Amino acid sequence: MTIVYDIFLILHFVGLASLLGGFIVQMRASQRVVNPAMLHGALTQLVTGLVLVGIYEGASIDPSSPLNQTAIGVKLVIAFIVTVFVMLGRRKEESQQQPYWAAAGGLALVNVIVAVFWVA
Predict the structure, then answer these.
(1) I need a surface site. Which of 64, 87, 90, 109 has the fewest CB within 10 A?
(2) What is the pLDDT of residues 53-102, one digit of tens each?
(3) 80-84: long-range pairs with CB below 8 Å, 24+
(4) d(CA 44, CA 118)
(5) Domains identified in the chain, total number
(6) Which of 75, 86, 76, 4 shows the shortest CA–CA distance to 42?
(7) Interior CA angle at 49 toward 45 and 52, to 5°?
(8) What element of type H or E holds 59?
(9) Which residue intervals of 1-120 are DSSP H helices?
């Protein structure tokens, strides 16, 4: 089961790269928009994150190191909000997407900080 967990962890990192990569690419643009890379990255992050927690808990990947459920809950809420901002931003006209772009990118960075300093 560890190999399945590792595969989903890699997919989770790919989603992160897509989300933050799409965000960073737009920083130089005169009109910042929520691009498809951000949408696909946010959805990948949300789904793979849920699968990772399920596998970790269900298969007892490391019984000596239980997950911090509070931190996982905070990360889930942030990931859900990022996904909502990305989806709402994609539905708006390009001239109105910048606030959604900024919120989604900023919260994605906050989620990375939570993962590094609180979960790990």
Answers:
(1) 64
(2) 999 988 877 878 888 999 999 999 999 999 999 999 999 999 999 999 99
(3) 80/46, 81/107, 82/19, 82/42, 82/45, 82/107, 82/108, 82/111, 83/42, 83/43, 83/45, 83/46
(4) 22
(5) 1
(6) 86
(7) 140
(8) none
(9) 2-26, 36-58, 69-91, 98-114
| Nearest Cα to Cα of residue 24 among 37, 12, 14 | 37
- 46 CB burial (10 A radius; 0-12, 13-18, 19+): middle
Measured distance CA(90)–CA(5) in Å, rounded: 31
In the numeric block, which tokens belong to residue 79?
């990931």
Which tokens belong to 12?
């989770």
